[in-house]
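To the wet lab folks,

You asked to see what we're planning to order before we commit. Fair enough. Below is the target structure as tokens, and below that is the sequence we designed to fit it. If anything looks off to you, flag it before the synthesis order goes out.
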């Protein structure tokens, strides 16, 4: 058994899938997945792959088009450049995919303590604040520390009608107009929304805000490579053209319809088999790099909202979907791992690992060595991190606990672009295996309707009455 590594693709920055520890040869018969079970899925996988190709050609899966839209990316780079030297802070107003995209890119591709660095040490890039909730204490705390004249506010909502984001926007609009006047406020607001003119799109044009458009055929949780993620990333210095290049490269790898040669399809098939054949209905993603923890949190929404469905495509009640959980290596070896190691056999663990992390710190040898510490001297923290990962994988595997790994050669825009696109394709393919629609979110919409009714929005009076019953 070997890592997934198609020999046609030899780029040194390829993201790889290692699924050895998913297989019965490694974790034991009755626990692991067998080759026969994967092969049995091959005909169904081909049907799904053909369906995906048809839907892509019809424009129904818009996120497949995004890696090739370099024209939009170049316009975004130019817009972001117009703020260079004028912007000390970037504040993102959004929730769900409208916020998680930026947070994942920021944490992965900026220094770990970016906001604490001086402007010079940040390379002139702004501090970044992602306001992904409506907790008034948190929101006000950011307003208290920014200079409104040197802050860009990016309002992001695909629908143009998200109550939480619109509430944030109205507060910021008033805040800016009170502090610097209506004319100056126009220059500090960038609106990223869908193309429907009757909503925020129309208001942005009427009031003169800069406007970026999210394609209609791209859902919020799949929007990281639209202006939702690209504009903030360009603002804090990410090479977004390289990000798209990585996504294009992964799209090439995922063009094959052969299950065992397609990393996204294979990862999806392994999740599906682990769930329906082995009862592993909890999908843990555990990065062994602090830079990737927010990618796991981004994926948590993608997996939960796409696959957690009450009915299948035939309208039958099925109530499917793995519960996604985020853990952090090494931190959660000292909290959650006891449960994963000895608790119920209901979890599949996916590690995100980095072959070449940036830099390390040597662990010094003690001049007067103490027995309980001396063994650490002469090693370094990167080595310790890798050994922690290997030890965790080994312990899980010996205990018959299924785990696999996505391996990044290093963390950079090219590899992160690959990882985002791979996980999106994996999600859509897995939706096909469950025979559900991975692109809708009726459960989320139900909650939104009650919010609209309880807040007094016209047209939702029935929801207001229902909430009082």
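Sequence we intend to order:
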């Amino acid at each position: 058994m070997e890592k997934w590594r198609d020999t046609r693709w030899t780029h040194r920055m390829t993201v790889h899938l290692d699924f050895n520890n998913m297989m019965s040869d490694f974790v034991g018969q009755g626990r692991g997945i067998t080759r026969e079970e994967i092969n049995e899925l091959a005909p169904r996988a081909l049907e799904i792959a053909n369906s995906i190709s048809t839907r892509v050609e019809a424009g129904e899966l818009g996120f497949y088009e995004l890696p090739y839209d370099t024209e939009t990316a170049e316009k975004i780079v130019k817009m972001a450049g117009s703020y260079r030297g004028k912007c000390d802070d970037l504040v993102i107003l959004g929730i769900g995919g409208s916020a998680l995209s930026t947070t994942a890119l920021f944490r992965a591709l900026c220094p770990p303590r970016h906001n604490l660095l001086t402007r010079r040490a940040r390379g002139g890039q702004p501090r970044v604040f992602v306001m992904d909730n409506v907790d008034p204490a948190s929101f006000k705390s950011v307003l208290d520390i920014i200079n409104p004249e040197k802050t860009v506010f990016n309002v992001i909502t695909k629908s143009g009608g998200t109550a939480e984001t619109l509430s944030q926007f109205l507060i910021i609009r008033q805040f800016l107009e009170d502090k610097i006047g209506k004319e100056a406020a126009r220059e500090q607001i960038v609106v990223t929304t869908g193309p429907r003119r009757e909503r925020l799109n129309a208001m942005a044009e009427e009031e003169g805000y800069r406007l970026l458009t999210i394609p209609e055929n791209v859902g919020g949780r799949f929007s990281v490579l639209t202006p939702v993620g690209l504009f903030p990333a360009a603002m804090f210095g990410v090479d977004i053209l390289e990000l798209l290049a990585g996504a294009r490269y992964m799209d090439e790898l995922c063009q094959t319809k052969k299950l065992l040669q397609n990393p996204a399809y294979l990862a999806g098939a392994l999740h599906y088999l682990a769930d329906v054949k082995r009862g592993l209905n909890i999908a843990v993603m555990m990065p062994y790099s602090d830079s990737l923890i927010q990618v796991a949190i981004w994926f948590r929404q993608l997996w939960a909202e796409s696959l957690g469905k009450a009915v299948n495509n035939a309208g039958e009640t099925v109530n499917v979907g793995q519960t996604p959980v985020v853990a952090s290596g090494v931190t959660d070896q000292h909290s959650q791992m006891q449960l994963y190691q000895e608790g119920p056999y209901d979890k599949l663990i996916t590690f995100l690992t980095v072959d070449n992390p940036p830099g390390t710190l040597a662990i010094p040898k003690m001049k007067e060595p103490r027995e309980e510490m001396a063994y650490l001297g002469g090693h370094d923290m990167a080595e310790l991190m890798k050994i922690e990962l290997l030890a965790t994988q080994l312990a899980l595997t010996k205990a018959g606990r299924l785990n696999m790994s996505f391996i990044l050669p290093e963390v950079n825009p090219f590899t992160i672009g690959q990882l985002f696109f791979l996980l999106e394709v994996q999600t859509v393919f897995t939706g096909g295996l469950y025979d559900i629609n991975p692109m809708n979110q009726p459960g989320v919409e139900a909650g939104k309707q009650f919010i609209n009714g309880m807040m007094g929005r016209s047209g939702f009076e029935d929801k207001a009455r229902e909430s009082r019953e």
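Structural context that might help your review: Residues 1-10 have pLDDT under 50 and may be disordered. The first strand starts at residue 16 and ends at 18.

Thanks,
Computational group
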